[in-house]
Amino acid sequence: MSASRDLQYKCPYCGQEFTITVYDTVTASKDPDLRDRVLSGDLFQHTCDHCHKEFMIQNPLLYSDKEHKFVLYLNQNDIGTNLTEFAKPLVSQGYRLRRCATIQELVEKIEVFEDGMNDAAVELAKYDSFIEFLENKKGKAEDVTSVAYEHTKDDVMKIIVHTGDRGMSFLIPVNMIEEELKTEEDLYKINDEDFPLINQDWIISVFKQSDGQA
Question: Does the predicted TM-score (pTM) go above 0.85?
Answer without folding.
Answer: yes
